[in-house]
Design a protein that fits this description.
Strand content: 15-25%
Keywords: ATP-binding, Chaperone, Membrane, Nucleotide-binding, Transmembrane, Transmembrane helix
Number of strands: 18
Organism: Lentzea flava
Radius of gyration: 34 Å
CATH architecture of one domain: 2-Layer Sandwich
Protein name: Hsp70 protein
Pfam family, one: HSP70
């Protein structure tokens, strides 16, 4: 069913093909491909109503479920792009809950597709499958791995592009517009008859694009007021030359997804081409050439079948959907000339670091020797029998990963002997150090405290 809704003047909603037909006579009350706007706070204007994309999606789903011949299903699963974050999913979940659908199961689209494929051709555990999804408005490439029975997880981060079948429809439409010049520019954009004819022409362009998947050329019918042209010819070679740059971008995104997942093409158990525009012959040719293996479009409705399998079975663990199983791709190597320079400098840098460390140790030993036998020193003028109460201000602990090597200067804080049974208690606050002593330490112990911010590792 196409993602199209039509809002009537009385507030009722039509969806799918019914909405497409009504849009021919009243195009200002229709919304298409609204799922791509989920999470966008800017509302969609549909007639005299302003609704968010997630609210329109919820209305769409409610109408679809109400039209089912078997009535309301026991469970509902909704697929979504694998790259969607928490905010977009929660926005959609809230809108569905407000519409009476509180127990919807969300399934990443690529995982649903692979689960449907697994039901048709059983995959071995550990098998990796590439998914090339070219939909109406967006493209997504992902690699999914089967861990166990009915458990599928992403093998790497997905790749997404803002390109899809609607862009290819627009290419065909612009081809027709150029063929209708100069009569096209003379049309009145406010004439209802013109608007209806243009909407019908767009539908004809979409149908022509789909026919070119099987035919080598098509004739696009034209019925515009004041224009004598009745048909515009379009060949498959012309169409492919116009969309080739976009298709090449999708193939490059698929290659990036494979490299990010650490999975070469020959290790893939299957390559699934899904989405209406994935049936374009040029897509199959380009993907086959890139991967070095024959590929073909998957059966229709793979994502819906996989979502139904999720809804029929047990709900997967959240970790199975959210946990990424990929490794980082290797970083590009530096040029050989630069690597030679680094190799030459490495011994000198290492020697310098070692010399600095030795010098620091010698200076520290000299400082300890000079201070031997010194009297007890404390920077806190607190009586031996009193205890200083600290405020509730939290201690600042700064985590510094991979802290650099200490400088080759004598350390400012030194303890000459191990602590005694009655140790000194130190409480550190931002930029301030407070030392409290419950009893006078033995004369032989030395405690030196330097103010500063405490640096600590991860808790």
């Amino acid at each position: 069913m196409p993602s199209v809704v039509f809002r009537s003047p009385d507030g009722t909603f039509l969806v799918g093909s019914d909405a497409e037909r009504r849009a021919l006579t009243d195009p200002g009350r229709v919304a298409r491909q609204f799922t791509n706007r989920i999470g966008d706070p800017t509302p969609l204007r549909i007639g005299d109503a302003a609704l968010t994309a997630e609210a329109v999606t919820a209305r769409f789903l409610v109408r679809v479920l109400a039209s089912l011949p078997g009535g309301q299903p026991a469970r509902v699963a909704v697929t979504h792009p694998a790259g969607w974050g928490h905010y977009r999913l929660e926005s959609l979940r809230g809108a569905l809950s407000a519409s009476g659908l509180a127990d919807v199961l969300f399934v990443p689209g690529p995982q649903a597709v692979v689960q449907a494929h697994d039901a048709l051709a059983r995959l071995e555990e550990g098998a990796a499958v590439a998914v090339y999804d070219l939909g109406g408005k967006t493209f997504e490439a992902a690699v999914v791995r089967k861990l166990a029975a009915d458990r599928f997880v992403p093998a790497g981060p997905p790749e997404e592009l803002e390109v899809g079948g609607l862009d290819f429809d627009e290419v065909v439409f612009q081809h027709v517009v150029e063929a209708l010049q100069p009569g096209w520019d003379a049309l009145d954009p406010m004439d209802p008859a013109v608007l209806t004819a243009v909407a019908e022409l767009r539908r004809a362009c979409t149908a022509a694009k789909e026919k070119l998947s099987a035919d080598t050329e098509v004739l696009i019918p034209v019925a515009l007021p004041g224009i004598a042209t009745r048909e515009v010819r379009l060949g498959r070679s012309e169409f492919e030359s116009m969309i080739r740059p976009a298709v090449e971008e999708t193939v490059a995104a698929l290659d990036r997804a494979l490299r990010a997942a650490g999975t070469p093409p020959h290790e893939l158990a299957a390559v699934l081409l899904v989405g209406g525009s994935a049936r374009i012959p040029l897509v199959t040719q380009e993907v086959s050439a890139q991967l070095g293996r024959a590929v073909s479009p998957a059966p229709n409705g793979m994502a819906a079948i996989g979502a139904a399998l999720h809804a029929r079975g047990l709900e997967p663990e959240p970790a199975a959907v959210a946990t990424a199983m990929w490794t980082r791709p290797p970083l590009p190597e530096a040029p050989k000339a630069l690597r030679r320079k680094r190799m030459r400098l490495t011994p000198f840098v290492t020697a310098g670091v070692l010399a600095a460390a030795v010098a620091g140790a010698l200076l520290a030993n000299n400082a300890l020797a000079n201070k031997a036998g010194a009297k007890t020193t404390s920077i806190t003028p607190t009586a031996p029998t009193t205890t200083t109460q600290t405020t509730e201000q939290p201690t600042v602990v700064e985590y510094v990963p991979n802290a650099p090597t200490a400088p080759a200067t004598p350390p400012r804080a030194t303890t000459t002997q191990p602590p005694k049974p009655k140790p000194t208690t130190t409480t550190t606050r931002p930029s301030t150090t407070v030392t409290t002593t419950k009893s006078t330490p033995p004369p032989s112990s030395t405690t030196t405290t330097t103010s500063g911010t405490t640096r600590a590792g991860a808790p």
